[in-house]
Amino acid sequence: MSPVPYSPDLEKREPDEGETGQKLNETLLSISETTAKDCGHGLRGVHAKSHAILEGTFKVHDGLTPELAQGLFAQPNNYAAVLRVSTIPGDILDDHVSVPRGVALKITGVVGDRLPGSEGDSTQDFVLVDGPAFAAPTASKFLGNLKLLARTTDRAEWAKIALSKVLRGVEKGIEAVGGKSPLITTLGGHPLTNPAGDIFYSQTPFRYGNYIAKFSLAPISPNLTALTGVEIDLSGRRDGLRDELGRVFTSDGGSWEFRVQLLTDLQDMPIEDASVVWPEDKSPYVAVATFTVGPQTAWSAGRARIGDDQLAFSVWHGLQAHQPLGSVNRVRKDAYAASAAFRGRVNKCPMSEPREPVHFAD
């Protein structure tokens, strides 16, 4: 099937979407304010805990077909990039509270027409999570889920650990019969697997030059694919995910493919319902770039000072050719900017987009 051409008319705003966005901002900031009072440091409202912060090379493939050679991917090129691996809560929890993992990829040295709010910058961000569908279909439902997460912030960690163990069993039962519950995994039912083997997805759609697409980042080097679905023992290790990722990247490095799934059917691949998995039999993910990291320290306090405190990642940092689409993405714009500004004020370290490749001196 042929890809559907992009048109602004394909987006349909929710009623009261502006009010929803404002409440989302307030909810995210309430999480950050709560954690800042506890630890005296400004944290992200979501994805506060980093487990690896890696520098590498993002290589756009040569010989892409015309429908794939769009935006950042129009020409083969090598870019410096940073990858931050995290988990979704806004507080820093024991890793036994097992929740979805995310990656944020920042590519530097990118030129072209910019998205509103990122004029003058030269970065392209991609924010992905290890599940093909978002936990909420729309911005209003997203707000409801975030309010639930906010109510659990800074509450009895021991209870969260106990609940996570129960929910992991529930999710295993669901997956045993071919299902999956994004809500249960979000609340603590995510399997205790090694993030190095995970496939990550944008979950929400984006403009892809003349077309529309979702993105994924999938491990391809044998040392990473060997870890896909492999459960790990975190006994006695509060920060066990950092330990596991350190073992992988300190000695070997690794490689992922950046893949694109073009929208080919507006009915089965909706723009405004982020909870729908786009069927791969209608449009498979196709590799358009490779991200490679060499052997390096995966996490350190010095890396965290840069990746956690000096860098902000947002789907709205980038090219017009990769404009975020759908209500979930639209309300992210101001919320992410407000979250970054809060951290900058509290930590006395205003956010700025890098103009040169980011390097870590461990």
CATH arch. level architecture: Beta Barrel
Per DSSP, the total helix count is 8
Radius of gyration based on Cα positions? 19 Å
Q: What portion of the residues fall into strands of 2 or more residues? A: 15-25%
Please give the share of residues in helix: 25-40%
Q: What integer is the average pLDDT?
A: 91
In the CATH scheme, the class would be Mainly Beta
Unreliable segments of 5+ consecutive residues: none
What's the helix-strand series?
HEEEEHHHEEEHHEEHH
Q: What's the shape?
A: globular
Q: Can you tell me the CATH superfamily?
A: Catalase core domain
What is the count of structural domains? 1
What's the number of extended β-strand segments?
9
Major β-sheet annotation: 9 strands, antiparallel
Give me the secondary-structure topology.
Layout: H1 17-39, E1 49-60, E2 77-87, E3 101-108, E4 123-129, H2 139-152, H3 157-176, H4 182-186, E5 200-201, E6 206-208, E7 211-219, H5 222-225, H6 240-251, E8 254-262, E9 286-293, H7 301-307, H8 327-347
Antiparallel strand pairs: 1-2, 1-9, 2-3, 3-4, 5-7, 6-7, 7-8, 8-9
Structure description:
By secondary structure, the protein is an alpha+beta fold. The protein has a single domain (8-347), classed as Catalase core domain (Catalase HpII,  Chain A, domain 1), CATH 2.40.180. Helices cover 29% and strands 19% of the residues. It is built from 8 helices and 9 strands. Strands 1, 2, 3, 4, 5, 6, 7, 8 and 9 form a 9-stranded antiparallel sheet that branches. Helix 1 (17-39) runs parallel beside helix 2 (139-152) and helix 1 runs parallel beside helix 8. The longest helix has 23 residues, at 17-39.
